[in-house]
Amino acid sequence: MSERIRIIAILGSVVIRILGLSWRIRYIDEDQLEKARQINPSVIFAFWHGRLFPLSFTHRGQDIQVLASEHRDGETMGQTIRRLGFGHVRGSSTRGGARAIRELVAKLDGGLDLGITVDGPKGPRYVVKPGPLEVAKLSGAPIVPITASSARHWTFDSWDAFEVPKPFTHVFVRYGEPVLVPADASAEELEERRLALEQALKAITEMNDDAFR
Q1: Dihedral sign, CA of 114, 119, 122, 125?
Q2: Which residues, 6+ apart, have CB-to-CB distance to 84 below 8 Å?
Q3: I want to staple 49 with a disulfide (CB 3.0 to 4.6 A). Which of 96, 115, 117, 161 is the partner?
Q4: Cα(160)–Cα(49) distance, rounded to whole angstroms?
Q5: How big is the chain by its Cα radius of gyration, in Å?
Q6: In this predicted structure, what is the pLDDT of residue 68?
Q7: What is the pLDDT of residue 95?
């Protein structure tokens, strides 16, 4: 790890904590998470890359294992969230994918939760990649859609329209209906579940955003 990445990670984690402590946070439909845990104690949190910032605060300190890309920005993100009490696994659907999937399944089997930016690391925005479905199929863990919206935020000019909630704003964290992938799911069934997850995430994100319009 370079000195530059280390400094950015330290500063990033401090900024997230300072901003997050000022937010007024509300959790919506947490019963969906409880429903998922009745199926399997370990779950896969699925969320959009652009909503990572607030979720990295609201779910800090829970040892959730987050998939970080093999790219340089993935290393920076991984080191930042590690300082917030997350674990991280390196890999993506394009680089280190098979190894990452095996490691993620092992984490779930060991009783840990996962967090995956399902349209990352480079988009397209709001298009779910197949990797999380493969992990769910191999592990038996339910996928829990989750999103975060805020009344006031900065939006980056990036592929994911990355959002950073402003100080003292209201932040809503919303959970969706768990998505299950059978161990014997065919390629067609995997695609059906992928589309179901994509639609569920779009729906709860739109519902959450509409609360502040």
Answers
A1: negative
A2: 13, 16, 17, 56, 57, 60, 61
A3: 117
A4: 6
A5: 16
A6: 82
A7: 53
- The single-letter DSSP state of residue 166 is P
Alpha-carbon distance 208 to 213, whole Å?
Answer: 10
Tokens (6 digits) for 151: 């009344």
Mean pLDDT of 87-115: 84
- pTM for this entry: 0.94
In the predicted structure, residue 1 carries a pLDDT above the cut 70: no
- Token pair 């993935």 in the structure block, residue: 74
Q: What is d(CA 51, CA 96) in angstroms, rounded to the nearest whole number?
A: 24
Structure tokens at 154: 């900065």
Q: For residues 77, 175, 105 and 78, what is the CA-based torsion angle, rounded to 10 degrees?
A: 10
Pairwise CA distance, residues 96 & 99, whole Å = 6
Query: What are 37's two structure tokens?
Result: 């845990």
Domain span at residue 188 reads 3-210
Residue 72 pLDDT > 90, yes or no? no
How many distinct helices (H) and strands (E) make up the chain? 7, 9
Overall number of domains in the chain: 1
Return the HEC string of 102-153. Answer: HHHHHHHHCCCCEEEECCCCCCCCCCCCCHHHHHHHHHCCCEEEEEEEECCE
DSSP state of 179: B
- Rounded CA-CA distance 190/184 in Å is 10
